[in-house]
Amino acid sequence: MEGLFDPSVRLHPWYRTNMVSTTGPTKYRSDKDTLKGDGSDGLSQNSMTIETMARIPDFVHAPRTHLSEIQDLYRRACLDVEEFTTRKAEISQQLFEGKYASFAKRAVVTERIIPLCHTAHGMLLTITLGCNTILAALHPWDTTLADDNARFCDDVLLLSQQVSQYRPLGASHLPLCLVAAYLAVADPVKRETLHSLLEDYQGDFTGALWVIVAEGARKTYMDARLRIFQEIEHDLGEEVDRPSDVEDVSLCGVQ
């Protein structure tokens, strides 16, 4: 997962080959299987398989080469986010309605299942936001991607409230999620909130440098967006209208 933001994180090609030979290629559940219930607890689009996460550094380092794969992963991840959000809401509703009457069952749900759901949700949002920002850089006039980014950032902020009681270990997945949200967030209020959360979570573990990672990743991303616009203008032979944040260095969070 850290390969989204750290260029030094690269997996050797044999890793993915070995994973596929051991577990087989990713299999997706059909709508029919999802509706009837096939005994699987996985999400219907399987966007968080080890095979998928092993590919993330390749997507970051060569996005144009892997554009179709990134688009497919983003489509699947968006569906999984929606499904996961619904599942979490159902569990919360069941708790509220007293479905888990016995103390033992309720303890399993509140102390094990819900924290695991939060962790998986955070990882899923990190993947989804990572794909979103890559696609937004390559398709700068796609307003749907911008709307998605704002919605997923809201999800991250809500998740940060939900996992705060499990800190530090039970919320150790959240900083990567916060970095992914900070990467391309446009709203200045949300950006400041994410920055404050990164500063707060940085204190959970000695040596953590989440603020530096987030600011560096955002500046790199904004620089990449600017280069892409310059390439477009060079190909067209004329200047094009750019989003207001493309050349605004203050948005990078660098002091």
What is the CA–CA distance across the termini? 27 Å
Alpha plus pi helix count: 9
**In which range does the helix fraction lie?**
55-70%
Report the strand count.
0
Category by helix and strand content: mainly alpha
How would you sum up this structure, described in words?
By secondary structure, this protein is mostly helical. The protein has one domain (2-16, 43-209). It contains 9 helices and no strands. It has helices at 13-23, 31-36, 50-61, 67-96, 103-138, 143-163, 174-182, 188-202, 210-236. The two termini are 27 Å apart. The relative contact order is 0.09. The model is unreliable at 20-41 and 248-255 (pLDDT under 50).
Question: Layout of SSEs?
Answer:
Layout: H1 13-23, H2 31-36, H3 50-61, H4 67-96, H5 103-138, H6 143-163, H7 174-182, H8 188-202, H9 210-236
Helix pairs in contact: 1-3, 4-5, 5-6, 5-7, 6-7, 6-8, 7-8, 7-9
Describe the structure in brief:
The protein is an all-alpha fold and 255 residues long. Helices cover 65% and strands 0% of the residues.
Summary keywords:
65% helix, 255 residues, 9 helices, 0% strand, mainly alpha, disordered C terminus
